[in-house]
Amino acid sequence: MLKVSKEFFDLPIEEKMKLYSNDPSKTTRLSTSSNLQKEKIHNWRDYLRLHCYPLDKYDQEWPSNPSSFKQIVRNYCIEIRKLGLKLQEAISESLGLDKDYINNSLGLEQGQHMAINYYPKCPEPELTYGLPAHTDPNTLTILLQDMQVTGLQLLKDGKWLAVKPFPNAFVVNIGDQLQALSNSKYKSTWHRAVVNAHKPRISVATFLCPCNNAVIKAPSELIEDESKAIYKDFTYEEYYGKFWSRNLDQGHCLELFKNSREI
């Protein structure tokens, strides 16, 4: 997966630009930074964004160059989805819920997106980030790291810690939807991407997302009474629209969905 991702970003610029778009509603697009229209400081990143589920609906849009791209990415998406759904079962059980509770709450046709991130070497890395500090708006993020260059950092106890790549392993980040659904028993992961002055790097992030019309709310088992629900009920479509209308560095979007008595 990393190899074919690098092959894509090594293509001539004219070939890649066929997919370029700043329209976030496009289901296959190449873009740069995060929000070019609103950002004061741009991120040092290019990325290929792909919708991945259902595969038969979207994979015809994917790049046909490199020639092996579609098949490799298709196989990867199938296996990553299996892993993500299993993880959500385990998280559900850890909360004392039926193992299918979270998957059922998020909708049987849960979405799946992918961002193949390319961080070029940067002459002045202290002036920008690959991605600034943020949490992810989805349910789970399963990250495949470049084995050659460390770039991911996680916030723990007020300190930023580098996450070194580990062979044959993924990094799994909790997203905002799981924080809301678990009534904050699980916390979404604050993370950022730093850039390197000497080496480019690739990462592949897969996002599992609720159905657009899925209502995100904490189950009664996780709240003493309605007054103890930290967040208002909302749909994923509502949340996602709010998230992408803001800059990544504008703070935690989930704060906008708190019950007024909890603010």
Number of strands: 12
The N- to C-terminal Cα distance equals 43 Å
The total domain count is: 1
Order of helices and strands: HHEEHHHEEEEEEHEEEEH
The name of the CATH architecture is Sandwich
CATH superfamily: B-lactam Antibiotic, Isopenicillin N Synthase, Chain
What is the number of helical segments per DSSP (H or I, 4+ residues)? 7
Contiguous low-pLDDT stretches (5 residues minimum) are none
> How are the strands of the largest sheet arranged?
1-2-3-10-5-8
Structural class: alpha+beta
CATH hierarchy, class: Mainly Beta
Radius of gyration: 18 Å
Largest sheet: 6 strands, antiparallel
What's the arrangement of secondary structure elements?
Blueprint lengths: L1 H8 L3 H4 L11 E5 L13 E6 L3 H4 L10 H26 L6 H6 L4 E9 L11 E4 L5 E5 L7 E5 L2 E4 L8 E4 L1 H6 L9 E3 L7 E9 L5 E2 L17 E2 H9 L19
Antiparallel strand pairs: 1-2, 2-3, 3-10, 4-9, 5-8, 5-10, 6-7, 6-9, 11-12
